[in-house]
Please model this.
Amino acid sequence: MATMQTVQVELGTRSYPIYVSPGLFAEDGNAKELLRPYAAGRKVLIVADSNVAPLYAAAVERAVREVSGEETALCVFPAGEQSKNFETVAMICRTCAQNQLDRGSLIAGLGGGVTGDMAAFAASIYMRGIDCIQVPTSLLAMVDSGAGGKTGVDLPEGKNLIGSFYQPKAVLMDTEFLKTLPRRELINGFAELIKHAILFDRGLFDKLLNAGDDILTHPPMDEMTELIALSCGLKAGVVSRDEQEKGERMLLNLGHTFGHAIEKVQDFCGFEHGEAVGTGLAASARLARELGLLAQDEEEKIEEIVRKYELPMAIEDCKPEELLHAMYSDKKNRNGTIRLILPHAIGHCEVHHDVPDETILKIWESFLP
Ligand SMILES: NC(=O)c1ccc[n+]([C@@H]2O[C@H](COP(=O)([O-])OP(=O)(O)OC[C@H]3O[C@@H](n4cnc5c(N)ncnc54)[C@H](O)[C@@H]3O)[C@@H](O)[C@H]2O)c1
Ligand SMILES: [Zn+2]
Model:
């Protein structure tokens, strides 16, 4: 088995480890030992969606049961963002109650970002807060949502409008789980991984750019483990320094002001989130070059990586004016200006508030087919 990578999220008494390894939940895997501090002698509820539960709930239940010494409870909800609402969180909490979980019990979120966000949100409110651990199964959850402590649900009025900051006690990632992840979901996760590289780490960027052609078809486990651990290390650093997004954590929105605008104008029926972020990364780079902030060869490399990971470089059926308008309504804006994160070099980005509308429109136009 490949060596396990461990990343620590430093948050004082709320610090926690992220473990990344292929085969963690295999019969001879390390999961049992890693779970012991959190699950021993405790009642555990596993939350999973209807795709992930049949694939991995049994393996996770087996490891948890051996350690906890009790039968585990399982709560399964229909897969998909449309389940990310109060009703599902209420169902999770009711399943806790029906299985006599108490303040000393544990919730484990097994799945992608939808599962993780709701499992942790339920843990943050059930009996005014019980412990949770995350077992991310999508690449997006491994590199982005699984660690960092943002939890929540959507409202009909908008995504992620309800939630809390609530850190897990541990995050266990078995990279073998990625073998069943649909290719489009894998690509979504790579968009966020590439984002972390552009933000903070030229070495990681080069590794991603130079990865073999099998990275999207048969992602090699050792390589994935290394890339995910590096990405988690970068995010963990940001979360440690700015847990509640008062400053540096805003940088993680690189590509997202563009991406959210695309998702909104397409009425969330076009690109997936990661795809929109991928286009957003290329748009941020083009804009930075247009403004003289980013060198041409750096911008070309960013476009190259976006293409390599099969992220879209053209937006159909969207008008530049609509996209610009959607950027103004992004919830992360302040004081009626558009806040953009722009690369100054691969590995270094800064926040900008003062980009003229005409320049943004010109960039949008350059992405029309
Ligand atoms: N909390 C945060 O910091 C944060 C950050 C980014 C995104 N998010 C949230 O995460 C969500 C998106 O996450 P996501 O893309 O993982 O969505 P998701 O949880 O819906 O998973 C995507 C799809 O992949 C399936 N799946 C997951 N793992 C699988 C596996 N190993 N094998 C086969 N199928 C698998 C799921 O069933 C689902 O159909 C959004 O709701 C977003 O708001 C949260
Ligand atoms: Zn994102």
